[in-house]
């Protein structure tokens, strides 16, 4: 199961279906040089896996104090009725 918190970028938790970069490796241009950005297909794949693991309302953010990514589950409490 991919771990979205252990890489420098959460999307690196899945391999790239576009340039075939492995899990943990940055995307490559056809020349083999490092791509400026991660491929869109990889970001979409990461989104799908993240949602299947953590649900559609979970989020991930970088915690500067802990110096690592943190997954935050959606608030399951419904807002109080007025
Ligand atoms: Zn790629």
TrEMBL record:
Pfam families named in the record: Phage_zn_bind_8 (PF24623)
Source organism superkingdom: Bacteria
Domain DNA-binding phage zinc finger: 9-48
Name the record gives this protein: DNA-binding phage zinc finger domain-containing protein
Organism: Palleronia aestuarii
Lineage: Bacteria, Pseudomonadati, Pseudomonadota, Alphaproteobacteria, Rhodobacterales
């Amino acid at each position: 199961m991919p771990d979205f918190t252990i890489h420098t970028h959460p999307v690196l938790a899945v391999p790239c279906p576009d340039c075939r970069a492995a899990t943990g490796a940055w995307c490559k241009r056809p020349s083999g040089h490092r791509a400026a950005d991660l491929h869109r297909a990889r970001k979409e794949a990461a989104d799908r896996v993240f949602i299947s693991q953590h649900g559609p309302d979970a989020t991930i953010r970088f915690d500067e104090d802990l110096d690592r990514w943190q997954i935050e589950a959606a608030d399951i409490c419904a807002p109080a009725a007025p």
